């Protein structure tokens, strides 16, 4: 018996067992702690409970103008949602004029929608509390780069005639102050300061530049927030639903139970029909499941009911890959080849078929992710992760385990391979 193969087999089995046990129970040693998958997995609205709403912009704009308006609206909504203190909100554009907001943990749907959908209030306020102008007087806000400061990004503001006059009077007054704190014009969105620039000089032409040590992302976000106050768009409620946590947990438990029963039945069939290769496939599928779940945890992906469906679907695809491989191996054994030659030939001949089927599924998953929304994206993400994990376990892990087993004299009987 080859000692190296024994050590390799025990190591692989230990990795599979450890990944599954840590996934179920977690691991803690001193200050080092790994939470279980159940505790660390980010759950979607349909599992955790909460509120989701789809809002549609009431505007006749189109093309780039519409895209700009929707981006501004999304920025403002994200700010409002963050102010609610909810964990893991999901805000995505849906189609051209719609925005889907998912609020896991929210209990009052009406209150959440009122906070999200109200018109943004943008104000420029002097240190005395006097409002200089509002978002209605702001024509535009965009990112510019200062050549005098090594192309550091800043935010350029443009006011209409009424705003230009009010801003000129305010900047003339504040520029004469000696204390820096008395020179500030605070830019406030929904009663929350988003920028506090200091006035250096009187600005008479209705154009101002907010300078600072901005990163490009910070400058872009500030410009978008200011534009959002300047260009509010009415939002009509298209769809709303509140999901109770009890319903979510019940759905999760039923889905997990159904998945566990399905996997168990697959294990029984594979072992009964393919014998030793079927047992190896069962081990590889355990590893596959833990890989998918741990990857989702690592990438902070959200698990939804469609995502669970995608996971179970890819388990079936992983089994399908094993079935193709094992049938090829059986054919090679019946043709009189040795076990090792049959395994090599079986994997080689099955690989093209497996690649073709998985590539077409990946293409479908990419299309679903690109054009889908909400739960559809969750399904697509789980499907793509599962496809790559199934390819790895079916083609690499299963082949490695088979080669290790056939190196032992106790497992050279072709009857053990269903031939």
Automatic annotation (TrEMBL):
Keywords: Cell membrane, Membrane, Protein transport, Translocation, Transmembrane, Transmembrane helix, Transport. Residues 70-126 form the Protein translocase subunit SecDF P1 domain. It is found in: Cell membrane. Belongs to the SecD/SecF family. SecD subfamily. GO terms for cellular component: plasma membrane. This is Protein translocase subunit SecD. Part of the Sec protein translocase complex. Interacts with the SecYEG preprotein conducting channel. SecDF uses the proton motive force (PMF) to complete protein translocation after the ATP-dependent function of SecA. SUPFAM superfamilies: Multidrug efflux transporter AcrB transmembrane domain. GO terms for biological process: intracellular protein transmembrane transport; protein targeting; protein transport by the Sec complex. It comes from Anaerosolibacter carboniphilus. Forms a complex with SecF. Part of the essential Sec protein translocation apparatus which comprises SecA, SecYEG and auxiliary proteins SecDF. Other proteins may also be involved. It is a multi-pass membrane protein. Pfam families: SecD_1st, SecD_SecF_C, SecDF_P1_head. Residues 130-233 form the SecDF P1 head subdomain domain. GO terms for molecular function: protein-transporting ATPase activity. Gene3D superfamilies: 3.30.70.3220, Multidrug efflux transporter AcrB transmembrane domain. It comes from the Bacteria. Its main location: membrane. The chain crosses the membrane at residues 256-274, 279-299, 305-326, 347-372, 378-402. Residues 235-403 form the Protein export membrane protein SecD/SecF C-terminal domain.
């Amino acid at each position: 018996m080859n000692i190296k193969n024994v050590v390799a087999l025990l190591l692989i089995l230990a990795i599979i067992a450890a990944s599954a046990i840590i996934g179920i129970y977690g691991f803690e040693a001193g200050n080092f702690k790994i939470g279980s998958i159940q505790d660390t997995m980010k759950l979607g609205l349909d599992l955790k409970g909460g509120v989701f709403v789809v809002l549609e912009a009431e505007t006749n704009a189109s093309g780039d103008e519409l895209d700009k308006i929707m981006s501004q609206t999304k920025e403002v909504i994200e700010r409002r949602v963050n102010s609610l203190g909810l964990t893991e909100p999901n805000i995505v554009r849906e189609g051209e004029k719609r925005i889907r907001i998912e609020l896991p943990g929210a209990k009052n749907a009406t209150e959440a929608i009122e906070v999200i959908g109200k018109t943004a209030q943008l104000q420029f306020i002097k240190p005395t509390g006097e409002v200089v102008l509002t978002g209605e007087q702001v024509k535009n806000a965009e990112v510019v780069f200062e050549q005098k400061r090594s192309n550091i990004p800043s935010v350029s503001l443009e006011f209409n005639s009424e705003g230009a006059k009010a801003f000129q009077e305010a900047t003339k007054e504040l520029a004469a102050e000696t204390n820096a704190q008395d020179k500030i014009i605070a830019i406030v969105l929904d009663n929350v300061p988003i920028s506090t620039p200091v006035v250096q000089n009187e600005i008479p032409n209705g154009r101002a530049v907010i300078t600072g040590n901005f990163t490009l992302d910070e400058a872009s976000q500030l410009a978008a927030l200011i534009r959002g106050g300047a260009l509010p768009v009415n939002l009509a409620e298209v769809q709303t639903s509140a999901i109770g946590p009890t319903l979510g947990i019940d759905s999760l438990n039923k889905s997990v139970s159904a998945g566990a029963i399905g996997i168990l039945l697959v294990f029984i069939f594979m072992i009964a029909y393919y014998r030793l290769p079927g047992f190896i496939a069962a081990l590889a599928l355990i590893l596959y499941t833990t890989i998918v779940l741990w990857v989702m945890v690592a990438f902070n992906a959200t698990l939804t009911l469609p995502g669970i469906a995608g996971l179970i679907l890819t388990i079936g695809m992983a089994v399908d890959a094993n079935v193709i491989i094992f049938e090829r191996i059986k054919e090679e054994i019946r043709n009189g080849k040795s076990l090792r030659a049959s395994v090599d030939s079986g994997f080689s001949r099955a690989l093209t078929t497996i690649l073709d089927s998985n590539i077409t599924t990946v293409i479908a998953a990419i299309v679903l992710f690109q054009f889908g929304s909400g739960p559809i994206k969750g399904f697509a993400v789980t499907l793509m992760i599962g496809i790559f994990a199934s390819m790895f376990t079916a083609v690499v892990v299963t082949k490695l385990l088979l080669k290790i087993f056939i190196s032992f004299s106790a497992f050279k009987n072709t009857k053990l391979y269903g031939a």
